[in-house]
Design goal:
The chain is an alpha+beta fold. The chain is built from 8 helices and 17 strands. The chain has one domain: 2,3-Dihydroxybiphenyl 1,2-Dioxygenase, domain 1. One of its GO terms (molecular function) is dioxygenase activity.
Length: 387
């Protein structure tokens, strides 16, 4: 890979690392069951795609909504996707120790989840696995992590042992034909540092670096098939910025570099900008604070938090409904779904069975689900009716 041009980014605007990853699933019900009953993450928000009411959007996170935001669309009638060149290939989840990977190997065996062997990448122990769609993930141990400490905590109602639970997102893998061009963009535009190479993998870090602030770029080789999006593939990845003010800096910066981008998009749970960095590869920059609409709700006293100051340090998922309510039913941010738009969205959702009524159920004594149980569960049928 060739040497990239360097550029200066103001210290208070440096990106913070991986914010969330959004993927495509064949079934909202099955992905809900897989993540809550096998992976031990909580459903933080149930809503719809803000551009397509016939598509659910599910957000999964750890206990406090501060580290492991993995989200899913279930686009209607979309075919199975294909992994390959020019694609975001794999998301990672952080676990506390190397021993955690042994724990998860045993858990995956019992749950019949397809997985590989524990290996080492860039000095970190990892364990690759797949879900029922062939969506690709890995667990990464924080035991040897030298970057920022994970801010998340294992979901307290999960039957995953607390000392081994998922606490955040780790490196995201991106496979492209033109690694030189993507390196130039990562270093020059986004402020990443090149941190090493292992075979066809190239590690890039930003901010404090480490497991939570890294991307791994993989070289596509001659003869590799081209990826295409569908269920079982990743739609986009998001990098974090502090708040709406720092997001304005990034919008101006990306415009200055003339990269294709969306401009400001307020998702309520956070505010964002989307930018195309390579063919088939979509990045997002998202705020760690709630989005502009959510902060305005809090400022007006209409949110469930007590003050605007509290809203600034609260997950955006829990501004329009409390942490204890979230995920039980469809949530539609009022400024994005006014009047008839909310009615249309609720009507569209009512025609698509999905049961999340047990999202706050205490699972600590539950028997571990198998992947077969996840696949066999009928959409929209309450869990107690399946026993």
């Amino acid at each position: 890979m060739t040497q990239a041009i360097q550029s200066q980014i103001e210290n208070n605007h440096v990106l913070g690392g991986v914010h969330h990853v959004t993927a495509i699933t064949s079934s909202a019900q099955k992905i809900y069951d897989f993540f809550t009953n096998i992976m031990g993450l909580r459903l933080a928000k149930l809503t719809v795609n803000q551009d397509d009411y016939e598509t659910y959007h599910l957000y999964f996170t750890e206990e406090d909504g501060k580290g492991a935001d993995m989200t899913f669309f279930d686009f209607k009638d979309i075919p199975k996707g294909m992994h390959g060149a020019n694609n975001i290939e794999r998301a990672s989840f952080r676990v506390p120790t190397d021993a955690s990977l042994d724990y998860w190997t045993t858990r995956f065996d019992k749950a019949h989840v397809k997985h590989g062997e524990i290996t080492t990448k860039f000095g970190q122990k990892t364990l690759e696995f797949e879900d029922f769609d062939g969506q690709q993930y890995q667990l990464i141990s924080d035991q040897a992590n030298t970057g920022a400490v994970s801010q998340g905590h294992s979901w307290q109602l999960s039957n995953v042992a607390a000392e081994h639970g998922i606490t955040g997102l780790g490196p995201v893998f991106v496979k492209v034909e033109n690694t030189d061009n993507l390196r130039l963009i990562l270093e020059t535009v986004f402020g990443f540092r090149y941190a090493g190479q292992e075979g066809d993998l190239h590690l890039f870090e930003v901010a404090e670096g480490g497991n939570g602030a890294a991307l791994i770029i993989q070289e596509a080789h001659e003869g590799d098939r081209y990826a295409y999006q569908g269920y079982g593939t990743i739609h986009h990845l998001a990098l974090g910025t502090t708040d709406p003010e720092t997001l304005k800096y990034w919008i101006a910066r990306i415009n200055a570099f003339q990269l294709p981008n969306s401009g400001l998009v307020d998702r309520f749970y956070f505010s964002s900008e989307y930018v195309r960095v390579a063919p088939g590869v979509l990045f997002e920059i998202a705020t760690y604070t709630p989005g502009i609409g959510a902060l305005e709700m809090a400022k007006s006293g209409l949110g469930v938090v007590d003050s605007y100051e509290e809203a600034l340090i609260t997950s955006g998922f829990w501004i329009d409904e409390s942490k204890e309510q979230s995920g039980l039913g469809l949530s539609l941010p009022p400024h994005l779904f006014p009047g008839d738009e909310a009615t249309k969205a609720r009507t569209a959702a009512s025609l698509r069975p999905l049961d999340t009524s047990d999202t706050h159920r205490d699972r600590r004594e539950d028997e571990l689900w198998t992947i077969e149980k996840v696949v066999e569960r009928k959409a929209g049928v309450p869990l107690e009716a399946t026993k």
